[in-house]
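Re: export button greyed out
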Amino acid sequence: MITAGIDVGIQTVKAVIVRDNQLLSHSLVMAGWDPEISLREAMDEAMEKAGVSQDKIGKITATGIGRKEVSFANDYATEVTCDAKGAAWLFPSVRTVIDIGAEESRGAKCDSTGKVLDFVNNDKCAAGVGAFVEAMARALEVKIEDMAELSLQSQKEIAMNVTCVIFAESEVISLIHAKTPKHDIARAIHDAISSRTTAMVRRIGIEKDVAMIGGVAKNAGVIDSLRRYLGVDVLVPENPQIVGALGAALLAVS
Amino acid sequence: MSPEYFRWEESNWHSDDKDWRKAKMITAGIDVGSVSSQAVIMVDGELFAYGNMRTGSDSPDSARKAMQGALEGTDMKREDIQFTVGTGYGRVNVPFADRLITEIACHARGANFLYGPTVKTVLDMGGQDCKVIRCNEKGKVTEFLMNDKCAAGTGRGMEVMSELFAVHIGEIGSMSMDIIKEPLPVSSTCVVFAKSEAAGLMRSGWSKNDVLAAYCGAMAHRVSNLLKRVGVEEDFAITGGIAKNIGVVSRIEKEIGIKALTPDFDTQIAGALGGAIFAGDLLLKSRKAI
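Workaround output, generated via the alternate export path:
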């Protein structure tokens, strides 16, 4: 059976098509003003890459904050369910999944089948989510994709007060004025988000193996910091942003 | 460069009818905050001059700038000031302070002078923090509660909104009152999320004034909860920059059912004013010691 998963996030929309547990295709488009347009685009792109039409797809499961916008979905699933399902399919040894997206972050504990045993969510505060790194990169006048390389050059730890994105912006500006090297500030930013994430995931217990998914997982600087804070290795899939949609597509199979 | 809507007006003032040269006591308080810095000069226990300036990247410079602002238009020099107290989060960097005192103590003392000894509860809404201070009729702190961890409920949060809506920060309050029906408050706590939520409300057809009302309402609600935790004993006064925002002030008054006193001077000077009063006490003490 061919199934599809679609993950409607705040910043991006992802679609994945699988056939009997085999990944056929995936797509990622920016979420525009109108979610209906962007989710249609993501779906069409994935179908085109897989060479299938929508009538061949047996089941479509939608996830993500905007999942209810997917009028053509057969089923809906929470982000945490899909994260665990997708991550466990990619890495069967995974027991803890950390997902840091644009405006949310969460941790899930799961078994080898990707069934969620426990989870924790952060959706109240932007410190600890992708928006934090983006705002800090802006303050630092560094492109978000250059943050990782910059921070990995740093050998120095600087303590940053990281309780709030808005306050952290002022702090980054003060550090710039104090002539702190940019790479040390970049590392402090990545340490900050990692420290918050570690504190959050510790509430459900950190069990090996640990995988990180979501847009922030593309930042090798954050991964490096997170490894240090967690004290364990962190597995990162090749396309960390599509794992939720993958999980949704796999859920549709069962 | 686009206009900077979040930029509030700097201000200064001085008394014309006071001859400071005959004074026995000239003291000053400097409050270096995260967003604004103030200097207040007192002559024989009376308010003589003040300056309220934006804090720059360098605390000592900001302290100097605030002092220059206060001295501007007078023929007084900084050397004429006999005792200076530094306060605020940047107080350790006030280069010409004789003594440092916490902003909590200074705010209570300053509010006691600004609003009179009947003030028992002071809500200070600053640039990066928000505090509720309970004090006695002498302006001595009896209890306080502070939020300095999150920008929700602070001036910085309001600045973010003024930028988003391209509305001057001084106009937000009155615009938020110019509405037909009070909207539901913005639901996000975090300023970053509230910004997205506000943008979404605009897209869904809300008017600018309605969204600003929803944001002022959310801020008022958050601060009212802080007030309720400490308990509000009348008289009640609000200091800091947000005290100038009628949209937040009137909604706090409505939620707690208590009217706030209105001051005759800039509400941002309370901390520095308290510092200048403490400076007077300390100066007297040192003279007695001699």
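Chain B touches chain A through 18 residues (CB under 8 Å). The button fix ships in the next patch.
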